[in-house]
Records
---
Amino acid sequence: MRVPDRVDRIMVKRMSFFWVGIVILLAVGCRGGGIKLSSLGVSQEQLRQRMRQVIFEAAGSEDAALRSHAMESLGALGGLEAPGLIRKGLHDPVAAVRFAAAGAAGDLKDYTARHLLERLLWDKEESVKLAAAYGLEKLGDDRFGDWYDAVLMGDDARLAAQACILLGKLGRTEFRPDSEEKLWRVLRKVDQAPSVKLQAAEALARLGDERITRKLLAYAGSGYADDRLIAISGLEQLGGQEAWAMLTVLADDSQVEVRLGAIRALGEQASEEDLVLLHGAINHVDTQGDENATVRVRGLAALALGRVGQDSDAGLLYGAMGSEWVYVRVAAARGAIDFLRRRGNL
C-alpha cells in the first residue's frame, strides 16, 4: 500500500531526520507569542518546566507535524505523563502521528500500550503497521522476525526506507540475528532508490557494522545537504577515528544546516569555535529574508546546543522555547531533553 501524499509530506520525506532527532527540517510552523532569544540566567528546573510545557502543548496541537514531533520527544523524555499522551497518539487520525506514537511506546517499553499496538497491526496504513510491529518487538514480542522483509526488498522506496530505519533502531537481538545481511541485500538491490541506500547505510552504522564506513564517507561528500545530514547520523552511530575526522570536516561545511548537524553529532567533542557558531545560529536571521531558512537554522542550533552547550547556555534554550515560531520551540524542547540528561537532571 502506498503512503498518501499528506503522510508523505509530514513523515516519509524526512523520516530519517525524525528518528535521529533532526526534526526541524520542515516548512515553517505557526507563529505564536514569544520572548527575545538571549542568554537568560535560568535554573535547570526552570528549563525543565518550560520544556515539559512546550512538549505537552505540541502533543495537543492541531498541527499533525507538531504532534508527531511531540510523540518523538515524549519517547525520549519518559516520566509519568509521557505514556498516557503517547497512547492518545496511537488513536490519532493522522498516520504520521500514529507511526511516531507506536515507536515512542516501544522506546518507553510501555506494556500498557500493548493492546493498542496490536490493533495497529491492522491499520490501513502500511507504515503504521511497521511501527506497531517495532513497538511490540521492543516489548519482547518475537513474532516479527521476518516482518520487514517484503517491504525492505519491495518497490515502494518510502516504505523500504522506513523499514531500514526501524530495523536499525531495533538493534541486534535474539529475534534478529541477520539484520545486517538483510540491509546489505537492500543496498545491493539492482536499481535501488538512492534514498533507500542511504537509509540502509545509516541503519548498518546503527548496528555497528564497520563495513559501511566507506559508503558513509562517500555519502558525506554528496552534493545534497539531506544526504550529508543522514551520513552524519550514520557516522555518529558508527564512531571511530575516520568517522570523527569526517564529522570534524563537516562541522566546517559550506551549508550552515550541515555544519549544525555535524556539531550536534560531535557532541562534547565539538570545539569552542563550534559553540560560538551555535550561539550565533540560535538567533539566526536569514540574510535573504527566507523565513523557512531562519526557522531551520534556529531549530538545528537548538538541537545541537542540547548536545554541546555548557551550563551557562541553559538560558539560550529557555529563550528559544519562547520563540515566535512553534517549530523552533519544539526543537529547543528536544534539545533541552539532551541538555538536562547530560547533567543527570532527567
---
Amino acid sequence: MNTIDPAYVETLEKENAYLTEQLEWLKRQVFGQRSEKVVQPNSQQLVFDGFGQLKAPEEEKQDVPSHQRKKRKKTGSDSIEIPDDLPIERKVIDLPEEEKICPVTGEPFVKIGEEVSSKLAHRPASFFIKQIVRPKYGLPQGEGVACAPLPEGLLRRCLADESLLAETLVNKFSDHLPLYRLEEIFKRHGIKISRQLLSQWVIRASLALKPLYDEMLKVITQSGNIFIDESPVSMLSPGKGKTEQAYMWVVVSNGLCVFDFRKNRKHINAEEILHGYEGIFHSDKYGAYEQLAQKESFTWCPCWAHIRRKFFEAETGDRVFRDWMLRHIRYLFMFERIAQARPPDKRILLRQEKQIPLIDKMIKACKDRLKEGKLLPKSKLRTALGYFCGLIPYLKNYASYADARLDNNIAERAIRPLAIGRKNWLFVGSDNGGQAAAIAISLIQSCRSLGINPRAYLEDVMCRIMDHPANRIRELLPDAWKSSIEK
C-alpha cells in the first residue's frame, strides 16, 4: 500500500488555498461590486468618546387624507439651476382675432394678464468669421502710411481664432472627444477641418501655453504640501505602427494640478519632477516614493486608502483578523472627517488623542499576526500585512501636520479624468504630443478643480499671454485668474 507524503499533502493544500483565493478575487473583479465599503450585518453603532452616538436621521412624513406617507426627499439629483442673466426669448401664443370678441355682447375681450411658462432651450453652437479691420491713413506729403498694428495671436499664420482653439482643447481634454469625432461635429455645421490640422492646432496651442505650465509647477513645488500619483498612457512608436507604454505623473497642491509626460516609470522621474521640493508629499507605496522618503527634505504621508484596499482584497485566510483591520481603518477615517472640520490646532490635537492610539493598536496586531505565522507566503493577507508593516515608520506622519491628509485621494481624483480620456483618444501620437497633452490637461483640470470654466479661462489667457509681462506670468494661472474675476 502506497503512503502519501504529509509534506506533499501540505503543499497541495497551500496551493489549493492560494488558487481559491485568486479565483475569488477574479470573480469579484468581474462580477462583484468594486466598492470597498464593508458593512457588518450585526455590528453595533460606533460611539465616539466626547462626540455622542451616530444616529440615522429620522424620516419626514406628510399627512394624506387616509394615512401617513413618507415625504419625498429632494436630493438634488432632479433639480436644475439656471443663471439669472440667461437671455429670454418670448413666444406669444394668442387667441385668433375672431375669438377675442364676446359672442353674446359683441364687445372685445379685455387683457387682464398673462400665463407665462418657462422652458430651458438650446441653440446649436454657431461659427462666424471674425474680421479685424485696421484703417490705413496716408501721411501728408507722401511720407508713408499709418495703420494700427495687428494684435499678436497665439499661433502665427493660423486661421483659427483663440476662441476656436480653446473650444478644441476643452472638447478633447475635458469632454474627452477624439479629434475624429470633433471633425464630424464641425462637418454637421458645414465646416470642414481635417483631423491632421486639428491635431496641429492642439499641439501648437498647448505648447504655446508652456510658460503657464512651468510657472504652475514652480508654484506647486513651493507649496510644501503635495499629492502625487502616476498612470500609464499609450504612445505611438515612430515608424513601428504600434504603441508603447508611457506614463503621466500628476502633482496636486491647493487646487492646481500639473501633469508630466514621461516615456517610462523609472524612479528618476519622480526625483526630476520634485527637484527642489521640500515638505510633505502624499502617495502610494511605489518604490520611487519610498526612495524620496529617505531624504531629510521630504516628509512622506503614505495613503491609508491603499492600505485599506490591500486588506479588503484579502477575503480568504483569516477573515476575522481582516475584518478587524478594516473596522479599525474605518474608525480612523471617521475621526479624520471630524478632524477636517476643525481648526488646524484642534485638528492635530484630535489626531493625537484619537487616531494615534488606533494606529498603535493596528501596528501591534499586525506584528503579532506575522509572528503567529500560518499564512501562505503568496496569500493576499500576507501581502497586506507586508504592505502595512513596510510603512510603519511613516504611518503617523500626517498626524503632526494640519495640512496633511490621511489618504492620497486628491491625486487619485485628479488623475481620474485622464483614465476616462485615454479610453476615447486611446494614445498620444508622439513625445511632442504627450508633452502638449500634459500642458492642456494640467490647465483644464486645474480649472475644473477650482470650479471655473476652462473654456472661458483658456480663451482669455490665449488672447493675453503674448503681450503679458514674463515676470508677471503668475497672474494668468487659474487660481489668480479666478481671484481677479471675483473682485
---
Amino acid sequence: MRITTIIAFILVLIGAINWLLIGLVSFNLVTFITMDYSLLSSIIYVLVGLSGLWMIFYSFMYKPFNEAR
C-alpha cells in the first residue's frame, strides 16, 4: 500500500505543477513531455486523475482507520 501512495503522490504533484504552468504561462508540461502524442497524453491524464482519487481515498478513508490501531 505504501508504494502505491508514493506513486500516487508523485503523479498528483506532476498534475499540480502542470496546472500551475498552464495557469501562469499557458505551457502544458504533459503535452511537452509526450511530444503531442495524444494517446500517451490521455494515459498520463488518466493516471493523474486516478492518483488524485487514490489520495482522497487514502486521506479520508484508509488513513484514519489505520491510525486507530
---
Amino acid sequence: MSFSNPKWGIVGSGMLGMTLAYQLAQQGQKVTLIESEETVGGLASTWQLGDITWDKHYHVTLLSDIEYLSLLDELGLKEEMQWVETKTGFYTDEKLYSMSNSVEFLSFPPLNLVDKLRLGVTIFYASRIKDWKKLESILVTDWLRRLSGKRTFEKIWLPLLRSKLGNSYQNVSAAFIWTTIARMYAARRSGLKKEMFGYNPGGYGRILDTFKARLESLGVEIRTSTRITSSLHLQDGVKLFTNKRLIGEYDRVVFTVPGQVIANTCPQLRPAELSKLENLKYQGIICASVLLKQPLAKYYVTNITCDWVPFTGVIEMTCLVNPGIFNGLSLVYLPKYIHQDSAEFSLSDEEIKEQFIKALLRMYPHLSSTDIVEFKVSRVKRVFALPVLNYSQAIPSIKTSLQNIFIVNSSQIINGTLNVNETVKLANSAARYLLAQEQSQSNKEYDSECLGANV
C-alpha cells in the first residue's frame, strides 16, 4: 500500500505562485515553479535604475497585512521591516494640498463643511458594512455620488478611483471602494490612527532572493525563461509545452497567470470555463520610475484631480524609503492605469517620457529638466481583473472540469484589492484546498487498496 506523492507544476512565479509552491513543498509535495520571464517575482520583480536596483513597481506594506507579515516572519525578514508615518497630498485646481490628518482635512479648501461631513459619513458607513456582496450590484459612481454628493465625488473620490482604475472606474462596482476603505481603516487601527507604511531596506529584491533560496532548500525546482504556450490533459497527468516542445509532464498543474492566458493554454476546458476566463476584463498599467536630484514634496502619495495630467498619481518613494538607499536621489513612480486593450501601450518610451516630464515640471515649478537622472518605463497589460457588477459570479473556480488542472489567480480575490497581502492570503487558502483535495484522493486510493485486499 502506498499513498500518492504527485508532481506539481505551478505556472507563474509571482508572489502568488511562489507562496503556493512554498505551502505545497512544506507538506512534502514535489513542486516545479515555471516562469516565462528571466527572474521570479512577477509584479514584485526588480530592475536597474542607473546604479540602483529597486522594485519595478511600487508596493506598500500595512501593519494590518497579517498574512504577508507572517510569511516574512517565516522567511526571517519581518524584523528587517522599517515602519514610517507618511503623508498624503492632493493636487487640485493646480495647487498642492496636504490631507494627512483631521485638521488638514477640515481645512481642505476645495470642499465646504457639508461636503466634508458627507465624506466622513461615507467613510464611516463603508467601514461598518459587513455584507459586501450587496455592493456588487451597484456602480461605484452611483453609490459614492449618492452618499457624498457631486462636489465631494469630483474632488476626492474621482481622483482616487482614477488613480487605480483609470477610465475603467465607470464600470466598477461599489465593492471596490469598500475593500479599499476597509484595508486602510484596518491599517489605521493597527497604526494607532497614524498612516504607517512599511518597507524592506533591500526592497523586493531582498525578499525575492530570500524566498527563492527557501523554495530551493525545500526541493522546489524553479524554471525561468520558460513560457508555457499549450497543454495536453491526460487521464493521469498534464503535459506542458512551449512552442510545441514538451518541457515537462506533471501529475497536477496549477495556473496562476491571467485568465486569457489560461484559456489560450488549456483549450480542453469546457466552453463555459473558457468563456469565464476570456471575459475577465483586466486593468493594465504604464508605470514610469524616475530618479531625481531633488525631492518633489513631502507626500508619499499625491492624488490628482486635474484632467491635463497624463499620469494618475505621484508616488514619491523617498518619502517612505531612506534616500540613502538611492544614493541621495529621490525615486518617484508615475503610474497610469489603463484598460488592457488601450492603444497607449503602443506609445514609445520617449513619447511617454515627453508627456510625463512636461506635466511633472508644471506640477512642481521648482523642478527642472536637469534634475532628471533616470526615466524608465514599465508596461503590464494585465495587472488585476476589474471588479465589475456582480463580479463574484463571473470568476473562475479553482477546480476545473479537467481533473488534474487547477486555476489560482488574482481574479479570485473577490473581497479585497490586489496587493501582496491579499495575494499571499489567496495562495494560503488555495494551498489548503489543494492539499485537502489531494488527501481526499489519497483516501480514495487507500480505500480502493483495502477493498481489493478484502476481496
